[in-house]
User: Fold these one by one.
Assistant:
Number 1:
Amino acid sequence: MQEETYQSEKFIIVKTGVNGLDDLIEGGFPEKSITLVSGSPGAGKSILCFQFIYEGVNNGENVLYLTLDKREEGILLQAKKLGYDFQPAIENGQATFRYLNINKKLVYETMSNEILSGKYDRIVLDSITPLSEMPLFLADTQNNMNGSGYSFVDTENQSTGLSGPVQRKHILFIMNALESSEATTIITSELSLSSSNLSRDGISEFLADGVILLKADPTMDRRKLSIFKMRNTKHTLKPQDIQINENGITLVRKTM
Ligand SMILES: Nc1ncnc2c1ncn2[C@@H]1O[C@H](COP(=O)(O)OP(=O)(O)OP(=O)(O)O)[C@@H](O)[C@H]1O
Ligand SMILES: [Mg+2]
């Protein structure tokens, strides 16, 4: 009996919303997992995120899209052009889009409060890169305000005494919050065109449950998607041909 519970818990999967991707990862992302989607500018990271949360909305789930790149309006317009109109879901409370301004001192609190609100089945953080690189420290403290082991300290008020690499602390803090939320999550990371890394920070790929790399090859006018990691899932490592068109990202099926 116990084994059955374990089995059924293990195999709850969440459809990605990307045509063809689910077939490569045993049906979708493991529920409550964190998947890192990395890629160069224009590789399709945000589009994949739209598809993921649109799938959630269509299933009657509650979704959260945290953006650091653009204000909500720009993101919504971009999504609508691809056929993902989130306006009705925003109006009925199913979808929340929130712009995080990294110049604001309270950005970490705003973000973690939203993530930990417990309201969401799917969360997107697009992207983690500005947060991991910002000059705002999270200091270890006994008397922290959120039980995470960290509190929020502005660099202006911090003289000396911080230990450990700041970037790692930022990423760990974000990952811990996402894990505690129990939502199924995508975070994106911005790579340069020539990068051979799996994330900009070199840390996220180890902490995430899954890693998907999107590559655009301008010379060949070709796009590829590779699944580098998906915990508890059997998957191919082979780069897959993808297309972006007015319907978003689709995996190209090869005909024999
Ligand atoms: N209707 C369409 N048909 C074909 N390609 C499209 C279409 N809409 C968008 N694209 C392609 O998708 C790209 C944008 O994808 P997306 O915004 O997801 O990239 P990104 O990886 O999030 O980039 P960034 O790191 O700059 O945020 C465009 O640059 C274009 O190449
Ligand atoms: Mg983007």
Number 2:
Amino acid sequence: MKDFLNPERTFHFANDSKNKALQTLLDNAFNKLCVEPKKTEFPNHFWSAERYGLHLSKRFQSLDQELKNKILRRLTELNLSLSYFIEKSGHNYGAKMILLSDNQDEKSLYALFAADEAIHQREFMNHMWFIPEKKTHWHPMLDMLGEAIMEGERNTLIYVVQVLLEGFGMSFYSGLAESCEFHPMKNVYHRILLDEARHHGSGVTMAQHYPVNQMEKDQIFEYTKSFIISLQSANWITETLEQNSGELSIDEKNAFLENIKYEQTLAARRVKLKDMLLKVDNWGLVAMLEKDKVL
Ligand SMILES: [Fe+2]
Ligand SMILES: [Fe+2]
């Protein structure tokens, strides 16, 4: 099964079947299921400077409008790309969980789950002017997700993907929905949020239902740790600023992060991640993560 679940197939499987008749059939099916039709014209960016705290940065404010627009467009692309890769990976996740299900209830749940992710991916692609690339649109958190989908035991995946990743996805998407200035996309995020809440909720229910063995506990701890570290250490905003306006010295970087209140963003995220894990923690996971200074 691992051959089918390697990260290359999970994230970078070809989208195009080159079969026109099949594509028409699929387009018709998706047209009935999507909340927004495909767009061909887009604003420069879907989220403005306030989304990232950039309106508080003297450095950003001192740039000319063209550069500001370039940065905001790139950040929009990165938000969409992370969403796209998460939804794409949901196909393989659903497929693996259908096979690992203990009963028909779970099989049906994951069949619906996979269908939801297929619709979500299409909704995103209907609002993208580009196809995300591994080299230019990657987020380090996806490395852990790919490995977990390939290697994780069933209970590990319930914790790591459904409770943690889907839980994070809900707050990521809800922030993007609130601040999105392109209304069709805003509708899409609101619609997807309802489905993600069901995915997360079913994960919490199942995590509470199944006891986890030592091997699963070890896996859950390792993946959770690497998920949180990669999430908290990735810094798109500084990277994008530097790519477009030159490298910052350490002092300039610190001042920039202070201006955009980055530490507060990270701290708020840590609280959310901890709250999510506490819903299913009856064996000391949060305490272990705190001991390792991950939370
Ligand atoms: Fe999704
Ligand atoms: Fe989901």
